[in-house]
């Protein structure tokens, strides 16, 4: 039985509010949590496979045509089984959700660190030795462009937008700002390094890997190898973080599959941390010019946001910096620009909230600058400029408690205590508070799941959806338990296997609403099947604690099933509601910082986020997403920066010692509050995405607080101490 829904109409039924079990929204622990904390959840590289050998990628040390040598020498080394230089090897990971096939080839190195060969040996150490020994001669192209500042810019037509006359609005403004900010490249730095184990059985490939979007990954892997997707199975039951870096099939998977086929043995390829930094996706550096014009009444008359980003030649992706600028604030005169510098650096791709993470951040810095020059409170400036409708398209917003988030945050944080910039001091510490808005687009994607009710009354959920630390196991279990009236321990959820119905995958914050809806639809169908057996209308039947109640009858599910199992597949497709309204999530961040007047060092003292993001499916896992997003914000504000050597573009700080993530000591008590919401247009769950909203502007609350503390405006992220102390 298939329950199919195309989301063409808003769903006003709010069915999850009317179920009896009462587990939706509860802070359920992750069902797989005990496996993870006891080290028994098996991650990609941890499978013990009989007869397995190991591959290590050999990578280019320069940019240009590759002239290989030494393969014979390496082949003669102890344990070495093969040196693979197949043209099907990937230049860099696939982008994950685009239709574009990944770029392949090993004869020209497009960036330093590009994989160009795989050395396979009996042990990892032997393979590593071979990969290090493999003399790769590169005819280095001295003219390769590795600095986006000097690169030729592409200005794709479809990515520009103009309405009204911004220049005139700026000229006539009572107050205006015209500021340029820079954000550096970032790394996803997921905890689990990328790894894959490939094995063939005849012409059937099984790949254990660590990926976010299995439906797409299967096609990308098949396409890269030149085989049919039906011949490829991918398993990713546990993923140790992705943040975009595992959206697309990556070089280790294709290399392992080619080697395993050639050798007739299982082959494992795991990336070192340095390789993760150099050969998986980075977030592009950006240069952003923001122009804002304000009238006497504090109303925005114009918004300009011009963004420069970079990527390798032939890549379809470019960081969509201005995505939320297009709808966050009012203003009749609008200019959006988007420019791509083609550079020979590690591929740029999605890193948590591509676009808004850096775009809303800089817009929110510019809004803070405008509030300052206009002498208007920053919270008030934002509230005055919340548009009634999408300012570009005139479409209504689906649901939006943005103004309430600003008010609630201000009240809870003690915003009224804020003083003029540079006027609060405790010993050597300059104290300030700052705020920023949060905004992120919301999407529903096609997704399928199967739910089976077994004769004993237990339910099983199966989908190739992934859980990248987000809480998918928990929320899909909760949705099935709520809809079928089962205690959560009577539901088991299996994920991450392409043999299961194909899901939306974990990306773009759409995973929970999309895959959750497929489970919801399957369960609605099962409810109908149960009602039929009871000879009643589905809506008249109450399911709770494994029992069905109808009229005065109470019957256990196992009695109703009478030895049978019932199964249903749910299938959601996006429809007209994606276009009819502007769907997005909103919020507000508040931060307090202390900046040392002696060293310029910034310590974040406290941070609050208040968010409006549809129905919250699990209060604990959703909160964790926001804690994580805001922690990314601390890193972005203060320390995170991929440094490229200007001579050849290579990443200098390719490890966790030199790429400075925020660690426990850097992160204060973070508080998160949800403004509950039902978004009828987003999905039948009335839920929206929460995975990325917490990073979409968070860094600006911190840098705006630095300005309030010090009177110093850092427009070149991150706000390291040297950039502050110079102006104190
Ligand atoms: Mo996300 S950056 O779409 O994993």
3D structure, described in words:
With 728 residues, the protein is α+β, with helices and mostly antiparallel strands. Among the domains are: 153 residues, 2-Layer Sandwich (Aldehyde Oxidoreductase, domain 4); 235 residues, Aldehyde Oxidoreductase, domain 4, CATH 3.30.365.10. It is 25% helix and 25% strand. It contains 17 helices and 31 strands. A hairpin with a 2-residue loop joins strand 26 and strand 27. Helix 11 packs parallel to helix 12 and helix 15 packs across helix 16. It is globular, with a radius of gyration of 27 Å. It starts with a strand and ends with a helix. The mean pLDDT is 97. The structure holds dioxothiomolybdenum(VI) ion. Dioxothiomolybdenum(VI) ion binds next to loops.
Present the secondary structure layout.
Blueprint: E1 2-7, H1 33-37, E2 53-59, E3 64-68, H2 71-75, E4 80-84, E5 108-109, E6 115-121, H3 124-133, E7 136-138, E8 153-154, E9 161-163, H4 166-171, E10 175-183, E11 186-187, E12 195-201, E13 204-209, H5 214-225, E14 232-235, H6 251-263, E15 267-270, H7 273-279, E16 282-283, E17 286-294, E18 300-311, E19 333-342, H8 356-374, H9 378-384, H10 402-413, E20 425-426, E21 429-441, E22 447-453, E23 459-462, H11 472-484, E24 491-494, H12 511-534, E25 542-544, E26 547-550, E27 553-556, H13 557-561, E28 566-574, H14 577-580, E29 584-596, E30 602-612, H15 619-638, E31 669-674, H16 698-710, H17 721-725
Parallel strand pairs: 1-28, 2-15, 13-14, 18-19, 23-24, 30-31
Antiparallel strand pairs: 2-6, 3-5, 3-7, 4-6, 8-19, 9-19, 10-17, 11-16, 12-13, 12-15, 17-18, 20-21, 21-29, 22-23, 22-28, 25-26, 26-27, 29-30
Bound molecules: dioxothiomolybdenum(VI) ion.
Dioxothiomolybdenum(VI) ion (MOS) is lined by residues 212, 242-244, 247, 350-352, 354, 507-508.
């Amino acid at each position: 039985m298939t329950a199919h829904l195309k989301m063409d109409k808003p769903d006003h039924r709010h069915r999850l509010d009317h179920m009896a079990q009462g587990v939706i929204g509860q802070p359920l622990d992750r069902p797989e949590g005990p496996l993870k904390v006891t080290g028994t959840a098996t991650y990609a590289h941890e499978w013990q496979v009989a007869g397995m050998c190991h591959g290590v990628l050999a990578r280019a040390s320069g940019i240009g045509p590759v002239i290989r040598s030494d393969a014979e020498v390496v082949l003669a080394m102890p344990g070495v089984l093969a040196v693979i230089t197949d043209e099907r090897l990937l230049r860099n990971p696939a982008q994950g959700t685009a239709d574009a096939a990944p770029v392949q080839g090993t004869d020209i190195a497009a960036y330093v660190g590009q994989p160009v060969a795989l050395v396979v040996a009996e042990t990892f150490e032997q393979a590593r030795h071979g990969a290090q020994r493999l003399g790769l001669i590169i005819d280095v192209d001295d003219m390769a462009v590795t600095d986006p500042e000097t690169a030729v810019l592409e200005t794709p037509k479809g990515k520009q937008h103009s309405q009204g006359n911004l220049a005139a609005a700026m000229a006539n403004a009572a107050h205006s700002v015209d500021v340029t900010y820079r954000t550096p490249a970032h790394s996803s730095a997921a905890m689990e390094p990328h790894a894959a184990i490939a094995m063939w059985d005849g012409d059937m490939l099984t790949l254990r890997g660590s990926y976010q979007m299995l439906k797409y990954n299967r096609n990308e892997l098949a396409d890269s190898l030149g085989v049919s997707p039906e011949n490829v199975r991918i398993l990713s039951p546990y993923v140790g973080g992705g943040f975009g870096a595992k959206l697309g099939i990556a070089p280790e998977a294709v290399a392992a599959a080619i080697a395993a086929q050639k050798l007739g043995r299982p082959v494992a390829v795991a990336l070192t941390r340095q390789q993760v930094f150099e050969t998986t996706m980075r977030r592009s550096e950006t240069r952003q010019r923001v122009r804002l014009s304000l009238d006497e009444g504090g109303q925005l008359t114009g918004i300009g946001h011009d963004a420069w980003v970079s990527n390798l030649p032939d890549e379809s992706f470019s960081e969509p910096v201005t995505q939320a600028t297009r709808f966050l604030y009012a203003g009749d005169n609008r200019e959006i620009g988007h420019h791509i510098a083609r550079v020979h650096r590690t591929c740029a791709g999605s890193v948590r909230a591509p676009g808004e993470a850096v775009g809303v951040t800089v817009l929110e810095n510019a809004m803070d600058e405008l509030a300052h020059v206009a002498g208007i409170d920053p919270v008030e400036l934002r509230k005055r400029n919340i548009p009634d409708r999408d300012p570009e398209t005139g479409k209504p917003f689906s649901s939006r408690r943005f103004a309430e988030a600003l008010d609630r945050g201000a009240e809870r944080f003690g915003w009224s205590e804020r003083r003029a910039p540079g006027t609060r001091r405790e010993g050597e510490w300059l104290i300030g508070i700052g705020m920023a808005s949060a905004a992120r687009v919301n999407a529903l994607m096609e997704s399928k799941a199967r739910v089976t009710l077994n004769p004993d009354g237990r339910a099983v959920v199966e989908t190739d959806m992934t859980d990248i630390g987000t809480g998918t196991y928990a929320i899909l279990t909760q949705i099935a338990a709520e809809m079928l009236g089962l205690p959560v321990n009577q539901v088991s959820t299996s994920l991450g296997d392409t043999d299961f119905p194909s899901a939306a995958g974990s990306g773009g914050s759409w995973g929970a609403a999309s895959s959750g809806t497929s489970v919801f639809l399957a369960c609605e169908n099962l409810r109908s099947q149960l009602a039929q057996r009871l000879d009643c209308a589905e809506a008249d039947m109450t399911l709770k604690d494994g029992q069905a109640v109808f009229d005065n009858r109470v019957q256990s599910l196992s009695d109703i099933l009478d030895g049978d199992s019932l199964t249903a597949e749910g299938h959601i497709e996006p429809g007209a509601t994606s276009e009819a309204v502007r769907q997005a999530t909103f919020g507000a961040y508040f931060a307090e910082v202390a900046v040392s007047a002696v060293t310029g060092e910034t310590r974040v003292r406290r941070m609050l986020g208040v968010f409006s993001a549809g129905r919250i499916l699990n209060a604990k896992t959703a909160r964790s997403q926001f804690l994580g997003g805001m922690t990314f914000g601390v890193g972005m504000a203060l320390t995170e920066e991929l440094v490229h050597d200007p001579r050849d573009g290579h990443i200098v700080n390719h490890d966790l010692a030199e790429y400075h993530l925020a660690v426990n000591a850097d992160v204060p008590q973070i508080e998160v509050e949800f403004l509950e919401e039902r978004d009828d247009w987003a999905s039948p769950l009335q839920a929206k995405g929460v995975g990325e909203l917490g990073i979409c502007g968070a860094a600006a609350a911190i840098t705006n607080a630095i300005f309030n503390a010090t009177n110093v405006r850092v427009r070149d992220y991150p706000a390291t101490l040297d950039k502050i102390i110079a102006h104190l």
